[in-house]
Amino acid sequence: MTADWDALLRTQSMIFTLHQAYAHGFTDHQVRWRVGSDRWQRIHPQIFAAHNGPLSYADRTWAAVLYAGEGAVLSHGTAAHAWGLATVPPRTIHVVVTSTHRRSAASDVRIHRATELTRREIFHPDDAPPRTSVERTVLDLVGQADKAVDAGAIIARAIQHGRTSAPRLTAALDHRVRLRHARMARDYIALTGKGAQSVLELQHARTHRRHALPLPVRQHRHDRPDGRWYLDAVYLDYNVAVELDGRSIHTQADRWWADMDRDNQLQTDGYLVLRFAGFVVLSDPCRMAADIANALHARGWPGPFRRCPRCPARSDRIAPSPGLAPEHPHRRTASRHSASGHSAGRSERTGNRHPTNHGRSARP
Prior knowledge:
Layout: H1 3-11, E1 15-17, H2 18-23, H3 28-36, E2 41-44, E3 47-49, H4 57-68, E4 73-74, H5 76-82, E5 93-98, E6 109-114, E7 122-123, E8 131-132, H6 134-144, H7 148-160, H8 166-174, H9 182-189, H10 196-211, E9 217-224, E10 227-235, E11 240-245, H11 253-268, E12 272-277, H12 278-283, H13 285-298, H14 332-353
Parallel strand pairs: 5-6, 11-12
Antiparallel strand pairs: 1-3, 2-3, 4-5, 7-8, 9-10, 10-11
Helix pairs in contact: 5-6, 6-7, 6-8, 7-9, 10-13
């Protein structure tokens, strides 16, 4: 046993390949004898541990990377845990290789294939397996997310924890050929730059048109004895205030408490306050619209909530408007066609009663 062999085992958490053993002078007979005598243990084909105890998480990650072959790096949820973006490591070790590799998956190892892995997309620490860069990791998880709202949460977490920045994520996205939820990802990344509120307010306005909600007053000035506040959207006739939270970074407790204190003071002033995270506004606007409609109904708004094609067929979150029966799911199509006529007319009459509508309904 040589010093180089000892150094290799220390670097790779006591995990090695059969070819590495050959390179350091071990023969097939010596390897088989050590495994057979329980000095070593086999983890995957041609992958061994130079001990016979339980495998640690670091052992498993090294074994997965070495098994997947040259150029393989930790990716997806495993890389996210290594970067501190996930508190609990996934049971399956995720690695990514270029599409030229032909290695099949092994037990508790999932191999992802990419057309290419550039040098800037790989981070290789001295004492851990190589992994994808933070930006590549975030975008991989965004593309893997089942829901756009989950993708938005991933981006928010990465920026909030200070692991990356909006410009770096945007640059990585520009080099990505295909990505699920790419449009939403770009919009949410933009929240950290200039014009973040305009992105949210645009989606907020579009949501109102689709669901025939009354129009709010935007950037409403609210004067108090201790200062002046500007609220993102206020429905003056119903004293409902909506805050669109475009800040991606809330790492300071005093900032978090300041938002809570402001909401509390608005509540004591008679407002019903709703606060929506930026990624919810962008990726799940129907959920936001339903919450706003329910709040308005609670404060006396008589208008109907108009379902859009993106609304779920059944949702207990969307309460019927006062005096109106809930829409039957089998009549959704007919109701949608009639909404532009009857609902719009009702909204116009409501608009004449409530100046916030400016005399007309929000049309799709």
